[in-house]
# Entry
Amino acid sequence: MKAVILYDSKTSGGSTEALIDSIGLSLAESGFYVEKAKCKALADYSFIKDFDLVILGAPVYYFIVASQLLGALIQGNLKKCLKRKKIALFLTCGSSESVAALLYLPQLKMHLLRNKILAEKIFALDTFSDGSVDAFVEDLLLHYNKPPKSKVLSAKWTAEAQDWFQSMPAFMQGKFRTMAEEYAEEMGYKEITLEVLAEARDNLGGT
Ligand SMILES: Cc1cc2nc3c(=O)[nH]c(=O)nc-3n(C[C@H](O)[C@H](O)[C@H](O)COP(=O)(O)O)c2cc1C
# Structure
């Protein structure tokens, strides 16, 4: 199992790097091979295909999540390279956890709407304790190791999606149904809509 921690910080040896080292150590103790990489907005992130788990972490400066990580998601190819990756997020900040959940975490999450986020954590000065890192890694591993759900797939097709499905050539329907239902299950969607089908097609590389 291979994990990479992608981070940004203006402070060499600051609190973000200290957290990353603790998270990395904790993951390594759980059997992961761990690397860390400091983000540059326009770097090439195709190397993350070699990793099973990607953790994104950064501090907040002047109300904005550190710019190289945000830039990598907005301007660079990080978002594209994260497709279908298991990810986790964390922030470090001086504000309270509730403020950060409202103002800062969404700055990252709005670029990761198509990812399954296994765990997210705000390491805020007001709630930080030695156990915080362990709790984050525990939560992350719990979701990482969760066995795949049973093949009794539960997402319901909307009438529009069903109509569209019926219009497909019969020989393609079996494979397509399985692909769509597994995608919905993986993403936690309760309904298969036309939008979910389009998203599955984009993410799974169909035409
Ligand atoms: C210049 C500067 C600006 C900051 N701005 C904010 C802010 O707007 N909101 C906040 O919650 N924390 C803010 N902080 C606190 C940092 O997010 C926090 O101390 C973080 O752990 C710093 O990480 P680092 O040690 O890796 O730089 C700021 C810190 C600095 C040094």
Summary: DSSP finds nine helices and eight strands in the chain. The mean pLDDT is 90. The chain has two domains: 2-144, 156-204.
